[in-house]
Amino acid sequence: MSMNRIILSDLMALGEDNRRDLGSADQALQRADMYRDDRLGAEARRDDMAKRSRSELALMPLVLSHIFAHRVARAAAGAAATVFVGFVMIAIANPLPFRVARWFVPGLLGVVLAVAMLAVHTVATWIAEVVFERRMRAAIATSPDVHEDLDRLAAGPVDVARQLIRRVDGWSLAGTLAGANAAIVMFGFLVFSLVVAREYPGAWTYAEAFAGATLARNVVPICLALVVGTALALLVGLACDRQLRRGTPPWLGVLAHRIAPIIANVVLLLVWFVGKRMAHTAHVLGTMPPLTVRLALAGAAVTAVGVLTTWAALWWRRREYARVGERPMDRPLDLA
Amino acid sequence: MEPSHQRFRRLLEPVHDAARSFARGVSRSRADGDDLFQEALLRALAKLDGLRDDGAFRPWLFRVIVCVHRNRSRRAFWRRWLPLGGDERDGAPATDEALGAAQRARLALATLPSDQRETIVLFEIEGWQVDEIATLHGVSASAVKSRLSRGRDRLRAFYTRRFGATPAASAALVPGDTP
Q1: Measured between beta carbons, which residues in chain A are less than 8 angstroms from residue B41?
Q2: Distance between CA A62 and CA A53 in Å, rounded?
Q3: pLDDT in tens, A197-233
């Protein structure tokens, strides 16, 4: 007899076993106490569940709240970095503000960006901790509506915490990737542009960096790279969010594969080599390479940086889920 | 107007056996299944006013059972991480040979994720159609087929690992005998 038939036969036997001694609907309803006011019983159950939930909350690992707060903070800091870089790009496209503020050098710009991200990260962490605390209080609170409490308390504080962590999963990934992509691409662009005009050592302190036409001329490819990078970051975030419900899409599995960062590093080295040669040629001859070449270089750089940061973010995400005892990314793709 | 408990009794009568059997099927033991069924009844009774169409009672009740079952499964999962009370699992049989067919199936089903277990029980044991299961779970028919396929794969893997590597070896399990 084949394995399938044995399993089917066992399932049939289980069905027969389940249908033995079913009792009547009346008996079931009597056990469910529907013929008398079940408020006292429900209240007792509610109180018992609340007590257990409070114990669960008291013993809940702090890592759950930390991961939630850090995810929210990363999403906020990444979004702030993207917006900041967007404003800088707008300013570069219209250099009048930087003509006024000559002291605004790239190094200082980097410091401002870092401080802004740190501030947003800190504030977002505070807010996330407050939200988490409120949700935990709500998860163990009782109200006059006993049955609503029973429904709510069915999911204990740990379940609620896991839901919170899963809910910000996609945003955290998207924000982190978009922010990292924006910062890396912008500063890569600045260094490239400044190297064209000046020598390496002075690049970060070159006070007239934003006044030159070189920067304004390259705004189109770099803005395109930023937009595409942000869109891809959102796509990865959306895929990670859907992964929890529908399974892992193949391309996300490829991005999370250990070979991905190696390929990305090779591409980055190539881009660095070609970019350096391009910068040298532009510096010596005084002419910029064609737009298509610059677009291809920006595209390769964005792809490599995107793959590298995505792999790192996905690795970190796996590590976080392992710390809270979940492995949702192991689910195969559900083709629904 | 008909009192809610009379309405509930009238609606429950025709679906009681199937619902209770389903609750037992997705649980680790008959006792757990009865407990699940009682809890689902309580929940359904409390929420009955929200049910507008009496004709939709059957899927509605099964959905309540599914919700209660998943809540219980989640809590059981976390009890492994946070030992707040005693071990509530049933005592395991002494040997695999002592297991009956129903116990083997129950043991194998317990290794499946909740959604696959519910789908397998509804389709293979309770005789539901794919479309009905899809409506109950709020997913597409292809998702139900996918869950069925994955669930069967897992069952096969479990049987092979636990009871024998080849069909010939597992033929000695005497299919169909009940405990």
Answers
A1: 28-29, 32, 34
A2: 16
A3: 555 555 555 555 555 555 666 677 778 878 888 888 8
Residue A310 lies in a domain: yes
Give the model's confidence band at A107: pLDDT under 50 very low, under 70 low, under 90 confident, else very high: low
Q: How far apart are CA A174 and CA B51, in angstroms?
A: 40
CA distance A29 to A328: 38
Instruction: Tell me whether residue A33 is in a domain.
Output: no
**Rounded distance between C-alpha atoms, residue B164 and residue B94, angstroms:** 17
Please give the Cα distance from B179 to B176 (Å, whole number).
10
Average pLDDT of span A101-107:
57
How close, in Å, is residue A317 to chain B by CA atoms?
Answer: 20
Task: Please give the span between the terminal C-alpha atoms of chain A, in angstroms, as a whole number.
Answer: 33
Q: Distances from the Cα of B45 to the Cαs of B9, B34, B42, in angstroms?
A: 10, 16, 5
In a mutational test of the A interface, the residue from B26, B30, B125 whose CB has the highest number of chain A CBs within 10 Å is: B125
Residue among A135, A69, A54, A166 at smallest CA distance from B82:
A54
CA distances from A310 to A264, A271, A323 (A): 11, 18, 20
Between residues A299 and B15, which one has the greater pLDDT? B15
- Domain that includes residue A167, residue range: 44-323
Query: Shortest Cα distance from A334 to chain B (angstroms)?
Result: 6
Residue A67 within a domain: yes
Residue type, A289: P
Is residue A12 one of the residues assigned to a domain?
no
- Mean pLDDT is lowest, of A185-194, A224-233, A260-269, B115-124, for A185-194
Q: What pTM does this model have?
A: 0.55
CA distance B104 to B96: 8
Chain A contact set for B96 (CB, 8 A): none
Q: How far apart are CA A203 and CA A195, in angstroms?
A: 6
| Interval B92-151: pLDDT, tens | 454 556 678 888 888 888 888 888 888 999 998 888 888 888 888 888 888 888 888 888
Max intra-chain CA distance, chain A: 94
Closest by CA position to A256, among listed A211, A175, A321, A314: A314
- Please state the domain count of chain A: 1
User: Across the interface, which of B17, B101, B106 has its CB nearest the CB of A9?
Assistant: B101
Interface test with B, best of A2, A10, A37, A60 (most B CBs within 10 A): A10
CB B133 within 8 A of CB B151: no
